[in-house]
């Protein structure tokens, strides 16, 4: 993602790579232990702590682990890492909501009219999107298209906070650094695949968070998130599980008169 916060300093931490996980480890191989593999919930947790300890004031997580709500994995390390980054190190943590149909990610119900006491429909969650579901400490981002309409493939859930562009994305090529807007073909005969999805939407919002932190250095991480949420363009219902509180507006986030709100997330202990 390019063009949102061009003067931001970027710390790149690779936690998911096939180059750093064992290939067919044999019986008894210590590398078969999940803790040393890349791309697990534990490596995400370690990457979050590492970024926070390096002084990152905005942490973007454009990876999603989708798990059945009936059989969630052990996420204590990740939850503790997110709490540490958001409350102790005062980092704004932004995460992709996930893409429906990818790696076990499926849409959750939008709203249960029979239970108005649960407007975000937490009780009907079927698939957990992590780290997004740690919504006290993470700003989860859904995706919209160029018209501002929610992408059908943007995963729904009660943790979604805001939405941002997830199509017509420009980025930098890892091979040479030039601008690119699509993945190259992986097999002969295939065509380029345009960038799309909530991973890019999250990066967009991370750029907005960087701008807000630069203009309002006295705001805490939670107050930065509050400013982004309060200045978003709300959906018809005010909030829903597809786009959260709506499409982010960078100009409004930087210029509107918005009360700062609480310095810490609800229930945070220091």
Helix content: 10-25%
Please list the strands of the largest sheet in the order they lie side by side.
Answer: 1-3-5-6
Mean pLDDT: 89
Q: Into which percentage range does the β-strand content fall? A: 5-15%
Query: What letter string, H or E per element, gives the SSE order?
Result: HEEHEEEEEEEEHHH
Number of domains: 1
Main features:
single chain; 270 residues; alpha/beta; Rossmann fold; four-stranded parallel sheet; two-stranded antiparallel ribbon; 5 helices; 10 strands; 14% strand; globular
Structural summary, described in words:
The chain contains five helices and ten strands. It has 270 residues and is an alpha/beta fold. It has a single domain (18-255), classed as Rossmann fold. The strands form four sheets. Strands 1-3-5-6 form a four-stranded parallel β-sheet, sandwiched between helices. It starts with 40 loop residues before the first helix and ends in a 15-residue tail after the last helix. The mean pLDDT is 89.
